[in-house]
Amino acid sequence: MRRPGYRQPLKQQLGGVKAMFIRLSVAVIVVVICMFLLMSAMSSSNSNSSSAEINTEALWGTAASDGWRASSAPRSDWPPPASESNGYLRVRCNGGLNQQRSAICNAVLAARIMNATLVLPELDANSFWHDDSGFQGIYDVEHFIKTLKYDIRIVESIPETRKNGKVKKIKAKQIRPPRDAPISWYTTEALKTMKEHGAIYLTPFSHRLAEEIDYPEYQRLRCRVNYHALRFKPHIVELSQSIVNKLRSQGHFMTIHLRFEMDMLAFAGCFDIFSPEEQKILKKYRQENFAEKRLVYDERRAIGKCPLTPEEVGLILRAMGFDNSTRIYLAAGELFGGERFMKPFRSMFPRLENHSTVDTTGELGKNTMGLLGSAVDYMVCLLSDIFMPTYDGPSNFANNLLGHRLYYGFRTTIRPDRKALAPIFIDREKGHTAGFDEAVRRAMLKTNFGGPHKRISPESFYTNSWPECFCKKSAVNPADKCPPLDVVEILNSQMESEGISDFEASGSNLTSAVDK
């Protein structure tokens, strides 16, 4: 028991003060940490709020290149085609214009792999297009042959031969190539048959050569074909340019590939939004053209497998910040369901055009569903300020354009992520409209707007040829360095040393492949 007036020793008093100081320090630290966390949360909230805004003005320009530029000229030893080939290669390219375009690229590469002489590719005049224009009717043949002179030999037809005074015509052996065939198939089975018969005829030739090839020079050859050799005939280029000039005379313009057409809707199995009569038409078309498969609309819609409706396209653009003054060119065939599906879109964006409304020559009116109409739409979409595909699944038109615009200078593309957007649209249809625009913006901000990005399956090489067909002047990786500026002279000297004299000396076409 302490005595009255007892005072603790000084040492004990100091110990109590020290303990109190420690407790106060801990309390202060806790308060500081809480304040820091609160401020971080507020900062993060503000950051998220601001990050959900899209600068539409910036989208009218090109995407950031990060120092990359298009270049498909050879960067390593690339010998000229041999003076004697192993035979002739004929191909029949089936499908629409852009499926055929990819097939032509594959045909050139196959000819290079087999040291074959390529016969000018045949374009299938299928029942959908009702068009027998052929390669000569769509593409500039002379330009095609001249541009690829360092890569393969090309003839317009298999020449006749004379033996013992008799004219003999080489008959090409028909083969059906396996889908996405590896290079080894061409260097073994196909080459063996070619040597036996003197010529082979590969049909059909859509997706008949593997896309992913672990040899960059082969991939660059594909780019030289796609983006340099395949040039539309002058009258198509002129007509397309006149349409672009007319559209651009009033400022920026956007192109949209509105893939809301019977074949794609039937393929996707998205029927429930249509009338019973329309559903019957779609189901009949699917039964006649596609493999039988159990398709449930709600399930397909929920995972983004249905093409966007015109109204959904309008809602995306409006949420992103585009207003009703935006000038839009629609590249599309006949929209299924007619005007009732277009009406909501038109009310949001009334300044709509298509090739029939801007073609003053009337030439397209005779061939809107043929290869000419598709070629003009392709060129207008390529040259537009912004391109937006609404369904880039098996759509060769959209996929090829995405790749071409990337190569053409990282031109802006708006690629809706249908899987991410599906639940947002479904919620809106259920009446949950609050926060809709912001949710759309957040989904769109996670997409790529046309800049260089890594190709990840199932993205096609024809959609994204980076990095094989691009280079950097000051690259860290030697494989990414741009080829020498005198690459044309190098290739010419190689041809001369091989004693190949029947090629023209001009290399102007390949020069454009060095630095686009």
Tally of individual helices: 20
Weakly predicted, low-confidence segments: 40-50, 501-516
Helical residues, percent: 40-55%
Distance between the termini: 97 Å
Strand content bin = 5-15%
Pfam family, one: O-FucT
Subcellular location: Membrane
Protein name: O-fucosyltransferase family protein
Family: Belongs to the glycosyltransferase GT106 family.
Description:
The protein has 516 residues and is of the alpha/beta class. It has 20 helices and 14 strands. The strands form four sheets. Strands 2, 3, 4, 5, 8 and 9 form a six-stranded parallel beta sheet that branches. A four-stranded parallel beta sheet has the order 12-11-10-13. β6 (161-163) and β7 form a beta hairpin. α7 crosses α20 (508-514), α12 runs parallel beside α13 and α12 crosses α18 (436-445). It is globular and about 85 Å long. The relative contact order is 0.14.
Q: Topology, pairings included?
A:
Elements: H1 10-51, H2 56-59, E1 69-70, E2 88-93, H3 97-114, E3 117-119, E4 122-123, H4 134-138, H5 141-147, E5 153-155, E6 161-163, E7 166-168, E8 173-175, H6 183-197, E9 199-202, H7 216-229, H8 234-248, E10 254-257, H9 262-268, H10 276-289, H11 297-302, H12 310-320, E11 328-331, H13 339-348, E12 352-353, H14 355-358, H15 371-383, E13 386-389, H16 396-407, H17 418-429, H18 436-445, E14 470-471, H19 487-497, H20 508-514
Parallel strand pairs: 2-3, 2-4, 2-9, 3-5, 8-9, 10-11, 10-13, 11-12
Antiparallel strand pairs: 1-14, 6-7
Helix pairs in contact: 3-7, 5-7, 7-20, 8-15, 9-10, 12-13, 12-18, 15-16, 17-18
